[in-house]
């Protein structure tokens, strides 16, 4: 039996919705098949008021063993570092987070807001939001660079806006069943099992990427979304085209550019006008090239690919 | 087939206009996305059949352009087999050796 506590800071509840839609395993499977005891969750918890405060205090004191502390949303520090804009159970949420993180065997940050600040931390960051152990790319965040939970691990970051349901439940199960040795983390503390490959891996438009045929409008059923419509699939680490959403699709499969939501900089360019759904270029060349490709190679590759492009690559290939 | 013939005719007509010295706006070069968006907005103000307007605003030339010899052949909007500019605001038959200010790779 592993006790899990889920709290929510500066958030839209998107990751809670995602979690409740998980299928492999489902939220119910966590309880019935994997022996996870959900102490409290914003959408599932039954305790209120004094009872909830007592539960939280017992977790902090150790009267209740806290095995997994899951946090969704940013740590809100406003105004002026007090955290008063996000009060919970009688005090600023940031105080609970600080004490519960120290008491927990494992700390798991779910979603961009909890991992690196996400949309709430976008400049000028009026809520003074931080992720648990990062603020965008800067290591540190609310808990500090050196933080490790009682089991000796840093915060396990499961980013996404929202995180895919199965990323959440599979990581929780791995932690709860003592398989943390199977979880290796990358430089941003993301489990490599999910975040080693790119969003582009498995994209059905890869042939259009290869032959440099661009989608030029939304809804087109041909063309790659990277060249013109701002898709970040070639430089975003996620398995969105390997572990499909709702088991059937992904953003790029449906013709929607990847927004790069599993990367620390999300939302990119601070959502400045003209930067969303538009590939940013300098003199016609993309500012952000596919990871590992330099400008010179990119230009050479484009020329060769265009020359080699077969006729079918220019046609709508998704005809029903 | 009829469609392709019409495109061939229009392509030849455009080539003739450019060869005859049609003056187009090759400057200023598009350096960033704001300028790109502004040019697109201007093109959207033209009628779909205003070929001269598109050529002039787009800054079309019938040869590779600049030190890097930029040309339609490598442009993202160019469909190689159809010899067609697929940028919705232009949507014109072109030759691979041409260039315009909306070129991107």
Explain what the structure shows:
The complex is a heterodimer of chains A (320) and B (105). In chain A, 24% of the residues lie in helices and 13% in strands. Chain A is α/β, with parallel strands linked by helices. Chain A has 2 domains: 194 residues, NADH:ubiquinone oxidoreductase-like, 20kDa subunit (Rossmann fold), CATH 3.40.50.700; 117 residues, Cytochrome-c3 Hydrogenase, Chain A, domain 2, CATH 4.10.480.10. The longest helix of chain A has 14 residues. The radius of gyration of chain A is 21 Å and the shape is elongated. Chain B is built from 3 helices and 3 strands; from the N terminus they run αααβββ. Chain B has a single domain, classed as Irregular (High-Potential Iron-Sulfur Protein, Chain A). With 105 residues, chain B is mainly alpha-helical. Chain B starts with a helix and ends in a 12-residue tail after the last strand. The model of chain B has no long low-confidence stretch (mean pLDDT 93). Chains A and B meet through β12, β13 and α9 of A and α2 and β1 of B.
Distinctive features:
heterodimer, A: 320 residues, Rossmann fold, Cytochrome-c3 Hydrogenase, Chain A, domain 2, 5-stranded parallel beta sheet, two-stranded antiparallel sheet, 9 helices, 13 strands, elongated, B: 105 residues, mainly alpha, 3-stranded antiparallel beta sheet
Care to give the gist of this entry?
With 320 residues, chain A is α/β, with parallel strands linked by helices. Chain A has helices spanning 14-20, 27-32, 49-61, 93-103, 111-116, 165-176, 192-195, 206-210, 295-308, and strands at residues 2-8, 36-40, 68-72, 75-76, 87-88, 91-92, 106-110, 129-130, 134-135, 138-139, 156-158, 281-282, 285-286. Chain A has two domains: 2-195, Rossmann fold, CATH 3.40.50; 197-313, Cytochrome-c3 hydrogenase, C-terminal domain (Cytochrome-c3 Hydrogenase, Chain A, domain 2).
